[in-house]
Amino acid sequence: MSAEKTGSVLVVGAGIAGIQASLDLAESGYYVYLVEGSPAIGGTMPMLDKTFPTNDCSMCILSPKLVECGRHLNIKTYTCADVVDVQGEPGNFTVTIRQRPRYVDVDKCKGCGECAEACPIDVPSEFDQGIGERKAIYKPYAQAFPNAYVIDKENCIECGACEEACQAGAIDHSMEEETIELKVGAVVLCPGFEKFDASKLAYYGYGRYPNVLTSLEFERILSASGPFQGHLVRPYDKKEPRRIAWIQCVGSRNCRVEHGYCSSVCCMYAIKEAVIAREHSKEPLEITIFYMDMRTYGKGFEKYYERARNEQGVRFIRSRTYEISEVEDESKNLRIRYAQEDGSICEEEFDLVVLSIGLEPSSSIKELGRKLGLTMNEYGFAEPAPLTGVGTNKPGIFVAGAFSGPKDIPETVMQASAAAGASASLLAEARGTLVKEKEFPPEKDVSGQPPRIGVFVCHCGVNIGGVVKVPEVVEMAKNLPNVVYAGEYLYACSQDSQAAMKQIIEEYDLNRVVVASCSPRTHKPLFQETVREAGLNRALFEMANIRDQCSWVHMHEPEKATEKAKDLVKMVVAKAALLEPIPQVSAGVTKVALVIGGGVSGMTSALSLADLGYRVHLVEKEQQLGGVARRIKQGLKGEDIPSFLSDLIARVTTHPNIQVHVGTEVQAVAGYVGNFVTTLTDGQEVQHGVAIIAIGGEEYKPTEYLYGESDRVFTQLELEEALAGGDPRIENARTFVLIQCVGSREPQRPYCSRVCCAKSVKLALKLKEKNPAVNVFVLYRDIRTYGFLEDYYLEARRKGVVFIRYDSANKPLVEKGDSALKVTVTDHVLGVPVVIDADVIGLASAIVAPESNRQLSQLFKVPLNEDGFFLEAHMKLRPVDFTSEGIFMAGLAHGPKNLEENIAQAKAAAGRASTILGKDQLESHGVVAVVQQDKCAACLTCVRLCPYNAPKIRNYAAEIEPLLCQGCGTCAGECPNKAITLQGYKDRMQMAMSRALFREV
Amino acid sequence: MQYVPNIRIVEMPCSGTIDHRVLLQAFEDGADGVFVAGCMEGDCHFQKGNYRARKRVNAVKKLLDEIGLGGERLEMYNLSAAMGPRFAEIANEMTERVRRLGPSPLKKQSAGTMEKEGDVA
């Protein structure tokens, strides 16, 4: 490689993976080109109603990321754009992008929607899965970025109505396709997935029967922003259904349609939809899920399943569905014919049937993979390079999300951060070379000056002005105390209005600015930046929302809406008079990482950060590196783990940036993000800016099934070791019994250990491979070979491994026989006890959290979940972060996972950590809480309440570390002596607003 | 989506910020009713702010009962940012409730006749 590397990265696909990867890269010092085929970023997440297992509102958790990504100075987004070609080598790629015409100028369009009002053409809405309608000029969804409309030329009749309606002059029917060439150092591919076309399976009647829906259609019906505003009705007759059935594995685990793999997410989303449907329904709702194996293998999933089954009345029927037919009357209800586990055939009637459709790669995704020369698997998904988590056969090209196989949101986000981290490591030398930084003029000192407030009232085209009498609002504002300027604007956010605003701030010597317009969610940062450009502190700005909260919702009451708009402006002006500048607090960053745990996860994190150029202290309590992986001989895809491990250890121990501390543990931790000081048990003091907790997990020591009493009963890891070591007990055995869920999915450990099903299937195959004549029985509760692991399950059955299901209430019985071990299990098909004379028994024993988790959790003041694993900041979107900034987790410390997944998570933790280490200065989050120390009684209320560990007691008074404070103000609300105030939201400001509201001007 | 035009909104970073005295001040100034709209329980962006808010709202409700204003004039609701229609429902529901209770006895004579409700979100 000759040329210098390029400090920018191409991210393809702007779903949650693309957004996360872009944000991580941009925050770590790389310029990002984010290319998205559709007219808006967001991907599938905005369509979802709630997300499992927390039932968080999908849009609510995504929307801040949309705004952040959309506004980021170092992310350039291309929507309606496709990657045509990638040439070059790692570090220096040339990318060709085809930019399709949008016919709307994104810079001019304000997203007001007047054009769509005027458009005469109705088209089924893709976003609403065809249940609702959109116009030929449309915005895919309300919170879309860019906040701009797009013309669907296929349906447009070029009547010109939109052009006439658009007061911003944004519509341009003459736009043409463009070709753009970009130089990047690395490529992250996250183009997502396509949904399986359920009409391919004629026996389900999708497309023929109106009351058979797909799960994504049902998601839109549940959504408050969906076609029925969240009212649970059948699209067919708008009646509320009383009986709903879900059918699992539609287009998954089905070799006949070449979808042999498991789509991994459908079990959980079906349970979620079922539970939410019940919540939405006013009438009692009967809910049934028809399934083959319930695959709730992720963190927190098993409990979610148990709750649905035991508390929320969801009926689960293990079955094979043969056919759906329509009842021959007006109801168009459906009859499901299915076979139960014992083979008996049943029929049941339902009002609505939801098909849990699988995930598949779209043809354009396959085409992209082919074009770039990536190895793809038989199903058309990208095949990641073994044990890289996110690498491909092409160096410099990384994958994240469903492109490399169906996966849920947390795993997708993890991979995105991992791919960002891997790209960053590759381009370490070019870090910071292409990123832009905004320069602002120095801030004017307004302290002691009487307030001089300017009020800018926006018409938002006719969005506000068509209802609220804007001139009246302006006149009223002019007479308010402290107001020295008030004016009206067609679009306050347009370029020219922004320029005018700066000039007026200058001219009238304004020291407070109020804009009355739309939502602060989308526009506050924009106006604050303008104010800052005019030399005012950002906190001297305030907004009144007279559109979303006034003109839009009181459309038919212009008089009252105008009154309300006036009141809202009055209130905000009263608050503005009390606004004070908020100084940005910043502190330097110790560009060193502390990684705790020297297993595969910890070593991977350490290497990633060391490759990025940061110094790393790797702490391992054992005398040697390697962790649990030392006992693993083969990966799930047959990878040679011992050689992988010795190579990894060699790279870690010889890396100039890594200092390894073996036989050492953490003793004390002080400081906060960017500036930690940790004392190790060897007495050494380590200064570091971030910490990654990767201390691994342990194998549960069974007390059941004669473990420890018979030397022929092994745990899974022991069996693997014995098999590899040529143990005669294994060599001479004829019959093996592998028992699943030993210690997992039990009352005392109510979680699934995730890896054991696939591991047992692989062990069974290995035994069969060694000697096809041996008998292998796998006794299981549900086989959870998610994703492509399903292929191994199929292979095992084909090779004669016998799978017998048992029930948790009726567990297998293991007894000592004369020469062998006697295993008795009730066969699920025959319903009678089967006795197996086993020579060897393998127990799939649980992965448990080590006791030391508790200790570390106290030292770092980070939480554990009920099962003793570390608890992430957010189950969905922050899967490797802690709520306390600067501390991350990876591997089994977070929960059970296989090696490949641990590697991805370890890279993700490194990627997230590099967003902090990449900065020279950390800045506080704008609004933070402050303590008036002479009023503080050191009662510790704030210390106990704060989820971020921001308050500390020093000299008998609380002090809030601004870099840790997230600005929620819970402490301010709770402080018994009112010693704490939240900047920008002080009580006296709120009270001034209330006073202004009820006082006549 | 439409709802009654007689509520006025005060923006908060988190319902957990709201202090007792802010709620009381609104009544003192002349609000007929106040409702606090926080995130769904378990969904707080700041972990537990909305639980704290509910506690405080309940405490202030008690106070309002004691002073004879009636705790019913204050309510805490949980809804998400994507639940516009639910917000409209709440606005209408709360207005109906306040209409039934009549104007606040604390209302200053000069405050005019229009019904107004404070809402803190």
Total discrete domains of chain B: 1
Q: At the third CATH level, what is the topology name of the largest domain in chain A?
A: FAD/NAD(P)-binding domain
The H/E string of chain B reads EHEHEHE
Helix proportion of residues of chain B, in percent?
25-40%
**Class inferred from helices and paired strands of chain B:** alpha/beta
Gyration radius of chain B, rounded: 14 Å
Structure write-up:
- Chain A is an alpha/beta fold.
- Chain A has 7 domains: 1-99 and 177-193 and 361-437, FAD/NAD(P)-binding domain (3-Layer(bba) Sandwich), CATH 3.50.50.60; 101-175, 2-Layer Sandwich (Alpha-Beta Plaits); 195-356, FAD/NAD(P)-binding domain, CATH 3.50.50.60; 453-576, 3-Layer(aba) Sandwich (Rossmann fold), CATH 3.40.50; 590-697 and 849-918, FAD/NAD(P)-binding domain, CATH 3.50.50.60; 699-846, FAD/NAD(P)-binding domain (3-Layer(bba) Sandwich); 928-982, Alpha-Beta Plaits (2-Layer Sandwich), CATH 3.30.70.20.
- Chain A is 27% helix and 24% strand.
- The longest helix of chain A is centred in the middle third of the chain and has 19 residues, at 558-576.
- Chain B has one domain.
- Chain B has a 4-stranded parallel beta sheet, sandwiched between helices.
- In chain B, strand 2, helix 2 and strand 3 (74-78) form a beta-alpha-beta unit.
- Mean pLDDT of chain B is 87; it is low at 110-114.
- At the A-B interface, strand 4, helix 2, helix 14, helix 24 and helix 25 of A face strand 1, helix 1, helix 2 and helix 3 of B.
